[in-house]
Amino acid sequence: MIGRPDTYDDALDLPGYARVYSGKVRELYAPLDSDGAPRDDVLLLVASDRISAYDFVLDSVIPDKGRVLTQLSLWWFEQFASLVPNHVVSTDVPAEVEGRAILVRRLPMLPVECIGRAYLTGSGLAEYRETSSVCGVPLPEGLTEASRLPETIFTPTTKAPVGEHDQPMTYAQVEAEIGAELAAKVADMTTSILRHGNEIAAARGILIADTKVEFGVADGELVLADEVLTPDSSRFWRAEEYEVGRPQKSYDKQYVRDWLASESGWDRHSGDAPPPLPADIVEATRATYVAAYEAITGERFR
């Protein structure tokens, strides 16, 4: 793993659980049965305080980030309960990871990054400027930074191994990967989640520009998994400051990306790992994540 920091999660010992996977920011553990064998029906999903950017895991952690991602995802899972089933089994977890872990269903996961876009920015804007489309979806002429799209669109990418870059996929490629019926369900559900999320967020003064969601499959039906509409997986913009034609102030890790790209002196194309974040950037990033949680849920972060 590129730039993997040495955090408490690397040495975390959870009696009764076996670590089965380490991702960019999450750890997966399997509960052990009475014979000491890993169970095959559920997993413990633990969100660390690690942060990634530009496909690197930084040598810095953001205090409370794991708790924010977990608690915000749980809030959104409840909002979408009538729209799509999710993977949550229980929040009764070991004390060592309380507040930043959930027990989830063990599911076959789709090998596609499911991305929805409501506004044009980031890699989508870069691709549009070259091709007048994003992931094969043609868009009107004259769009610019932060333009609202005529409708929410599905712009999937490959799910690259940790340390490698995801690549844009066309809808036809998604069909070839997972089949036409499942591809149609994935595209519809991804855009539905973003549209419904924006309806909820708009009342709280937030625009959700784009998001990435993960799906598993159970009995042929989609199950929403991993995280949903968090500052790690989405771009949240302040509606009162929204202005087309310029980058937006946001409630997400764009703050970290901007520091790396403009102030750190690091060249993201060099192949070198990015530098650690200064203390003030760490503090401001934590504050941004907490602000996102409080603005969306209307609840004080504890």
Description:
The chain is α+β, with helices and mostly antiparallel strands and 302 residues long. The protein folds into 2 domains: 8-105, Phosphorylase Kinase, domain 1; 112-297, D-amino Acid Aminotransferase, Chain A, domain 1, CATH 3.30.470.20. Helix content is 28%, strand content 26%. Strands 8, 11, 12, 13, 14 and 15 form a 6-stranded antiparallel beta sheet that branches. Strand 13 (206-218) and strand 14 (221-225) form a beta hairpin. Helix 1 (65-79) packs parallel to helix 6 (279-297) and helix 3 packs across helix 4.
Q: For this structure, what is the CATH homologous superfamily of the largest domain?
A: ATP-grasp fold, B domain
Largest pleated sheet: 6 strands, antiparallel
Find the count of extended strands (DSSP E, 2+ residues): 15
What would you call the structural class? alpha+beta
DSSP strand (E) fraction? 25-35%
Shape: globular
Produce the secondary structure layout.
Blueprint: E1 17-22, E2 26-31, E3 42-47, E4 50-53, E5 56-61, H1 65-79, E6 88-90, E7 101-105, E8 112-119, H2 122-131, E9 133-134, E10 137-138, E11 148-154, E12 157-158, H3 171-178, H4 180-202, E13 206-218, E14 221-225, E15 234-238, H5 254-262, H6 279-297
Antiparallel strand pairs: 1-2, 2-3, 3-7, 4-5, 6-7, 8-11, 8-12, 8-13, 9-10, 13-14, 13-15
Helix pairs in contact: 1-6, 3-4
